[in-house]
Design goal:
Layout (H helix, E strand, L loop, with lengths): L5 E6 L7 H11 L6 E7 L1 H10 L8 E3 L2 H9 L4 E5 L15 H19 L5 E4 L4 H6 L7 H8 L6 E6 L2 E5 L6 H6 L3 H17 L8 E5 L14 H15 L4 E5 L4 H6 L3 E6 L2 H12 L4 E5 L4 E5 L16 H15 L1
Parallel strand pairs: 1-2, 1-5, 2-4, 3-4, 5-12, 7-10, 8-9, 8-10
Antiparallel strand pairs: 6-7, 6-11, 11-12
């Protein structure tokens, strides 16, 4: 008897890294509700090699190669479906090596995942890691999944948030040099970030909107009134004041050496980190393996691991799949909410 399921699309990431391994492990260990299914996008030969090399006893319920056969597999109620595409030349494949081929295949698997959402086969996308140098080698301009998925869905204003066992961190900027990230902290841009984060948190039950949003300081001790930089006085404080005039419950700036701990203890709804490493260090120090990323303001939900391809251990069977498991389970929670 078939079961009416909602599906998550799962591209396989950079095949030379640990992505295929953690996808297979997470399929085995993630606690998926009966109403949720997976459509994994990748190369059947590559998955077979990873399973054989790493002694993983994981089998897909159905292997399909096109939309009609996928539609039939969904109608038949299969929960773990492989949407098999020939993306990897196995004769030239090696674990742990940056290659244009693997960069192209990672991009193509993400592209197919978006196509599956657009066609109505899946509602959300859950991503393992890809490799930025491999994307560059393949001539792909986007530097990561957020940029790729935004471009493929013609979306602007995507917002990244980390979820580390209840600690929620938004990012004002992501992949910028530290110098450029400081320049990106302006009153106008930060007001927009605060407004977007407030709207996101008010739209989803996972956030306690009785609590304030908090904005981390940029400089040590929030600049000490200009002693260690003036960005707080010229940009951060004015942005917070303007947001509060617009009715937003936001506080700050609060020193980055304390605000993330305070949020973890339940004082704030979420923290807005002003640059990449500021929030990444806090989240990953708290729990590296179970930190996941959620991308908001796309036409679909996207959750992801927040670790790299780990080329140094690819093909050894030692990759920790906790992040991928959490990414799948959190996607289920939001999908069913």
């Amino acid at each position: 008897m078939s079961i009416n399921r909602t599906y998550l699309a799962v591209p396989f990431g950079d095949p030379a890294g640990i992505g295929p391994e953690i996808v297979l492990k997470a399929m085995q260990k993630a606690e998926l509700p009966a109403s949720i299914g997976l459509i994994v996008v990748g190369d059947e030969q590559l998955f077979s090699k990873v399973a054989n090399d790493l002694h993983l006893d994981v089998r897909f319920d159905s292997v399909v190669t096109d939309h009609p056969s996928l539609s039939q597999a969904i109608q038949d109620g299969y929960q773990r479906i492989l949407y098999a595409q020939h993306l990897v030349d196995m004769a030239s494949f090696s674990y742990g090596i940056v290659s244009a081929m693997c960069g192209r295949s990672a991009y193509r698997s993400a592209e197919i995942a978006v196509e599956l959402v657009n066609a109505g086969f899946a509602c959300s996308i859950v991503t393992p890691p890809l490799h930025k140098e491999a994307l560059k080698a393949a001539g792909i301009n986007q530097i990561g999944y957020t940029e790729i998925l935004s471009d493929l869905s013609n979306t602007t204003g995507a917002v990244t948030m980390f979820d580390t066992m209840g600690l929620k961190i938004f990012f004002h900027s992501r992949h910028l040099s530290l110098r450029k990230a400081c320049d990106a902290v302006t009153k106008e841009s930060l007001i927009q970030t605060i407004l977007r984060c407030d709207a996101i948190t008010k739209a989803h039950a996972a956030f306690d909107t009785k609590l304030s949003l908090a904005v981390a300081g940029l400089n040590p001790h929030c600049g000490e009134h200009g002693l260690f930089g003036d960005e707080e006085m010229t940009a951060v404080e004015p942005a917070i004041e303007e947001a509060r005039r617009q009715g937003i419950d936001v506080v700050g700036p609060i020193g980055a050496d304390s605000v993330f701990y305070q949020a973890r203890m339940g004082k704030y709804r979420a923290v807005i980190s002003l640059y990449h490493d500021q929030g990444h260090i806090a989240a990953k120090t708290y729990d590296f393996n179970r930190t996941i990323s959620i991308t908001w303001n796309l036409p679909f939900l996207r959750t992801s691991v927040d670790h790299g391809t780990a080329f140094d251990i690819a093909g050894t069977g030692t990759a920790d799949a906790q992040g991928m498991i959490r990414a799948l389970e959190v996607a289920c929670q939001y999908t069913l909410a």
